[in-house]
Hints:
Blueprint: E1 3-13, H1 17-37, E2 43-45, E3 50-52, E4 60-67, E5 71-80, E6 85-95, E7 99-110, H2 126-131, E8 136-138, E9 141-143, E10 147-150, H3 155-163, E11 171-174, H4 187-193, E12 199-203, H5 206-216, E13 226-229, E14 244-245, H6 247-253, H7 255-273, H8 278-303, H9 307-337, H10 339-350, H11 354-357, H12 367-377, E15 381-383, H13 385-392, H14 399-418, H15 425-434, E16 438-439, H16 444-450, E17 455-458, E18 461-464, E19 467-472, E20 479-487, E21 492-499
Parallel strand pairs: 10-12, 11-12, 15-21
Antiparallel strand pairs: 1-7, 2-3, 4-5, 5-6, 6-7, 8-9, 11-13, 13-14, 16-19, 17-18, 19-20, 20-21
Keywords: Coiled coil
Amino acid sequence: MARLVYACRFDAPSEDAWEKVVRPRYERWVSDRYRRAFETTINLDLSASEVAGRLPSGHSLNIRRYVADGTALELEWAFPGENGLVWRNLVRMAQLTDRCAVEHRVEVASAEYLLAPAFYSVGAPAVVRTICQQEMLIGDMRVRAAVYPLPEEGIHQFVGLLEAEQRRLPVVLVTPFANGEPGDLDPQSLADRLAGVAIVAQADTPETTRLLSDRLARLGCYDGGVRVYWPGFRSSDDLRRHPLMLGSRIAILGPERAARTLERWIFSVAAFRFVPDPRIAAIIGASEAASRAERAQEAVEQGGTTWEQYAHEMSEKLDGALAELDTLRIENANLRANQNALFSFSEDADGQDEDEQAPREREPTSVREAVDFAAEDCPCLLFLDTSRSSADDSPFRRPQEIYEVLSMMNKVSGVWARNRGGGDLRQMLRDEGLGKRVSNFISQTSKGKWGDDYTFIYNGTSQIFEWHVTLGAGAADTCASIHFLPDQDCGKLVIAHVGRHLTNTRS
């Protein structure tokens, strides 16, 4: 069964858009792909509905022409891909009075019975990206596959775009870090891959993101992050309705995987919400009705069949078709209901970084060795001498876990520093994988009774290191803690203690 994985609709404005924009680009798209990928010559003539050249095995390329109150063309192109998959492009086009309407769907199906995940990457077809580099009409809005800059003075207009009733596409906003550095996602790459299904905007400065947050409160976007604003946006919307991926999360996932996750959010919705263009459907429907009437007349004239007999036969066929349609509707509903699960599973299974799949090079045999390794490998952490002496005194039996936690803290610290200390550090550490093990305070009882245990000399002064990560529970060989202090001035997490759990009401 085929799954719809990409779908878009747009109008190329102008009376000659079919001849000058749409037709030549689709013809070139197919012929160029065969020349580059398959080293064969295939020439496409959409106007004549002809294909010249020998297709490779397993490929099919069909053109259907429909004429009624206008002319519509349907291009169906299927070819095998990797991992036993078959890709199918279904394109329908019609030149209307002052525009050429285009709809492009991409489906994927399995060519063999193989119970294994289907790993694939989806992006806007190259021909859609090329056409949409010019301004296209989507609904009543003119858009193109480009990055729209968002300066400070454009905040009011941008919010107007978000709230516009005629907006049919999501807006993807990419922001810089608080220190002015660009975020890790490439806006132009996003605009290319999301051509036809999203509008990509880029805030120019941190001040722009602050002004936007002043207007939208928690629905703003900041800290090198990216947010998807779905159509129908209102500033009173629930925070979770318009998903935000902060710069810290992007850094943890890696730019490539983060971009793929973002794209799949949008592609899954586009596939689910796609509705065929009624103008093209009307031309095709009228043309097919006229063709059926012609065949019926020929059957009556040539076969001696009466109109009553023919109508009875057609009624039986219609009943069968309606029953099949009901089955397909149920199947389609099931496929759509599972669309998100399909994407999520593919993302989780396919999204591991190479570093996650490769064996770890560091295998510390003691807590002290874990600290020494981390001091060498983690430039965004600053280790005090007390971290090493406490590590020497620790009998914790899982030093590899100590090293892994310090590595996680190092990754988050780097992003936090780029944000100039902005963002929710605790949440960033939780998202990295530390979860509820990380805390930014100790109880008042512990601070009052055993405050000296949590106090360390840093920069010549005594400071309480309340931030901590707890590993395990119980005795000292199965429980450890890491106490640290965020230092925004140097942009590092300062590690003061690695080892035995410090004294509290439960120890």
